[in-house]
Structures are given as C-alpha cells and as structure tokens.
Amino acid sequence: MTGNEKDIVSVVESLHADLAAWLGSAASPEVFERFAEGQHERFSMVAISGAVLGRDELLAGLREARNTEPGLRIEVSEVTELARDGVLVVVRFLERHLSDGGSSSRWVSAVLCATEDSSSGYRWLTVHETAADE
Predict the structure, then answer these.
(1) Are 79 and 96 in contact (CB under 8 A)?
(2) Axis crossing angle, helix 55-63 with helix 29-37, rounded to the nearest 10
(3) How many helical (H) and strand (E) elements, i.e. helices and strands, does the chain have?
(4) Pairing label, strands 88-99, 39-46
(5) Does the pLDDT of residue 105 top 90, yes or no?
(6) Which residue range is the domain that position 47 belongs to?
(7) pLDDT mean over 25-40
(8) Alpha carbon distance 22, 26 (integer Å)
(9) pLDDT digits (tens, 9 = 90+) for 72-97
(10) Across-strand partners of 104?
(11) How many angstroms separate the CA atoms of 124 and 58, rounded?
(12) Given its phi and psi angles, is residue 25 left (phi above 0), alpha (psi -120 to 50 degrees) or beta?
C-alpha cells in the first residue's frame, strides 16, 4: 500500500501511539525502531520549546527516554490534510500529552512524504510544534 492509499489520520495516530508507548512504558525495542523508521532521513523539527532538531538528534534523545513518563497517553485530534502535491502531504493536528503529572497540548504542522519503503506508507519530513491552550 502506498502513502496515497493509506488514511493519513491512521498514520498520524499510529506514530503517536508508538511514541506514547515508548515514553510511557517498558516498550520493546521494536516500538522505537518502528517510530524511527517513520522519520525521513532529512527529518527536522521545531519542538514546542523552539529547539530545532534533526533526525539523529531526535532519535538519540528518544532512545534514552524509554519509560521516562510512565503511563503517558497521547491523544491526536482535529487531523486536517492541508495540501497534497505529488508524494508530499501537509497536515495539521492537535496533540495532547496526558500523564499523572498533568497535560500539555500543542498544535502540530507536518509534512509527510509518501514512500513504499515504510510500513506506514509515509515518512515524516518535518514537524513544527506550537503550544496550545489547555
């Protein structure tokens, strides 16, 4: 199944389910590997803090963050496909992190690249997070 055939909402939800499992439990290494596979080799992001991270920096930090937020849940809502041109898809969604320590929300804009060499059919090329009111 190529990216154009796969539901973009499912792609966004699946990646965030893996992220929550990795950060919020003693997840198996396969969960991290699946998340890492989803990141394009040229991946970059602007984090909610304003820091700009490349793929290697993001994955190195996440590799060490397994189960650092026990019980973390990540809710994704309001997924909107803003544009699609060739293999690129631009989406925006609301991401809410919930744990015993409270919650935080962010709006996320992302560019995904359809590909046949990823199990989800997409790789995440760039992400920009902006804090959202609770």
Answers:
(1) no
(2) 170
(3) 3, 6
(4) unpaired
(5) yes
(6) 3-132
(7) 97
(8) 7
(9) 999 999 999 999 999 999 999 999 99
(10) 97
(11) 12
(12) beta
Task: Work out how many domains the chain is built from and give that number.
Answer: 1
115: left (phi over 0), alpha (psi -120 to 50) or beta: beta
Q: Read off the tokens for 81.
A: 């496909």
For the entire predicted model, the pTM comes to: 0.91
Distance of CA 122 to the CA centre of its chain: 11
Structure tokens at 45: 């992001």
Q: Six-digit token pair at 134?
A: 């609770």
- Rounded to whole angstroms, the Cα distance separating 60 from 38 reads 15
CATH number at residue 24: 3.10.450.50
122-132 and 39-46: which strand pairing?
parallel
Q: How far apart are CA 47 and CA 18, in angstroms?
A: 18
Angstrom distances, CA of residue 80 to CA of 89, 93, 126: 10, 6, 16
